[in-house]
Amino acid sequence: LAGGIILGVALWLRHDSQTTNILYLQLGDKQAPNTFYVGIYILIAVGAVMMFVGFLGCYGAIQESQCLLGTFFTCLVILFACEVAAGIWGFVNKDQIAKDVKQFYDQAFQQALMAESETNNGKAVVKTFHETLDCCGPDNAIGSVTHLWRDDLCPKKEPSLKRLLEPSNCHKKIDELFSGKLYLIGIAAIVVAVIMIFEMILSMVLCCGIRNSSVY
């Protein structure tokens, strides 16, 4: 069940409209950075393997097989080590993910403002960012007033006066998007880790109980 929950959360994050709209963009020959998906794929793999390993543990407990329970314990140790490694990797790279996406957006924004922007898809990339995240412009002076002179780039969902008083730059929105998603991944990983620790303890207790009962 835990494996199924983790798999479901990972698949939801993988197919979430906000991240897929942004991370599948292409600016000329350059693809949007998809480092974020590495953590998602790890969660998908862990969830799928946990479902199989969980079945192995249940079957081993029903059959009272020390071999199956020992295999179950070994698989849990390996999964736990992989999850710890993935967690460390995610913590180290959490700021880099948003930074790479912001750099990609800035490049597209600069191309969209240039005269030759019509010859590439910079304008389309920028509009996708603006419509998906409901923002307009980068975190600088040019971005804060972009909506006043480039209405073709910004989503027309709010009055211009409100945008002027409360500018919503895309750098802030990108940070909020990925910090929120990584927060969910972190919660899921902690829940899985706690469950796996209990599984390892209980599987060893059961295995030892079966071994001791076979003596009598």
TrEMBL record:
Molecular functions per Gene Ontology: lipid binding
Covalent S-S links between cysteines: C135-C170, C136-C154
Keywords, alphabetical: Adaptive immunity, Cell membrane, Disulfide bond, Immunity, Lipid-binding, Membrane, Transmembrane, Transmembrane helix
Chain ranges passing through the membrane: 36-62, 68-92, 182-206
A GO cellular component entry from the record: basolateral plasma membrane
Membrane topology of this protein: Multi-pass membrane protein
CDD domains (alphabetical): CD81_like_LEL
Subcellular location: Basolateral cell membrane; Membrane
Major location category of this protein: membrane
Top-level lineage group: Eukaryota
Membership in a protein family: Belongs to the tetraspanin (TM4SF) family.
Protein name: Tetraspanin
Organism for this UniProt entry: Nipponia nippon (Crested ibis)
Lineage: Eukaryota, Metazoa, Chordata, Craniata, Vertebrata
